Structure prediction request, 126 residues.
Amino acid sequence: MNARLPRSGLWFLLVGAAAALTHLLVFEASRRHLLPELANALGFAVAFGVSFAGHRRLSFRDTGTPLATSLRRFLVTALAGFASNEVVFVLLLRGLGWPALPSLVLALVLAAGQTYVLSRLWAFRR
Prediction:
């Protein structure tokens, strides 16, 4: 087993937690002024910067991928994760009538796995 994988996975979790916290804080601050789906999108947009910088510098710091390439690829990866997030969020919130915050937390957790796999295998390919 590659010794870098556990360290990369730990950094991914820590960076992901920081980005998720950023996402949640922006969501909470804006949801009284926006539809929950738009507050979720705003949270994603702000957290994207935290996520990309942290993953580039920490989770996948030994990547051989040029910065611009990683940024483009990670944007596609993050948008795919956000699409999954938004679908789950809306299904829980509107379809099942869950409260907004628990809906968002579960949506973030489910999208995180997808984002890790796409980041590791494509966006920050070693």
In short: The chain has a mean pLDDT of 88. The radius of gyration is 15 Å. Residues 4-123 form one domain. The CA atoms of residues 27 and 67 lie 29 Å apart.
